Amino acid sequence: MIAQIGALQRLVLGEYDGRRSQRLDDFYQVCKRAGIDAEISDDIRRSIWEKFVVLVAMSGATTAMRQTIGPIRSNPLTREFLLDLAREVVAVGRAHGVNLPPDYAEQRIPFFDQWPPQMTTSMHHDLQQGKPLELQWLAGGVVDLGTRVGVATPMNRAVRDVLLLHVGGKG
Predict the structure, then answer these.
(1) Looking at the domain assignment, is residue 98 inside a domain?
(2) What is the enclosing helix (H) or strand (E) of 40?
(3) Which tens digit of pLDDT belongs to each residue from 36-86?
């Protein structure tokens, strides 16, 4: 069973080369008719990285700290940790040629602040339940992608290393 409990349901569509295509337009129309909040991105690569910035920062902070977003953003030091995780993802994306603004991480702070204080991430839930973690694709992915382009990622490396012993779950 899948249960959607958040209010952040949106489907962003786009062709990787940035062009509009008939299949894109057709799928968009199907989504709209079905009541799905969909939008077409003019730069799907940037859109993917925008989501990645938020996902990596939130999953890394909530899981490593074993807390919901409320306490994390309320403490100046843990709030800065969350922001630093996001900054590293932005730096890595930009080094890979993604058209992200240099201050994109800072732009996300009001977004983080609007979430209910009890909000957390699926990776945090997985850790609590002893399930395998998505670590290699999130913080670990940022570390790997940063290494390829010579961008240091010490905060994401810390998250990866702190959680590494839990990556397989308790099975």
Answers:
(1) yes
(2) strand 38-40
(3) 899 998 999 999 999 999 999 999 999 999 999 999 999 999 999 999 999
d(CA 158, CA 153): 9
Closest CA to 86 of 53, 59, 64, 111: 53
Phi-psi sector, 18: left (phi>0), alpha (psi -120 to 50), beta: left
Chain-centre distance for alpha carbon 76: 21
Instruction: Judge contact between 60 and 139, C-beta under 8 A.
Output: yes
Which residue segment(s) compose the domain that 27 sits in? 11-40
User: Smallest Cα–Cα separation from 26: which of 13, 16, 37?
Assistant: 13
Task: Assign 88 to helix, strand or coil.
Answer: helix
Other Cβ atoms less than 10 A from the Cβ of 126: the count is 18
Give the pLDDT confidence score for residue 10 in this predicted structure.
Answer: 79
**pTM, two decimal places:** 0.88
| Same domain assignment for residues 24 and 65 | no
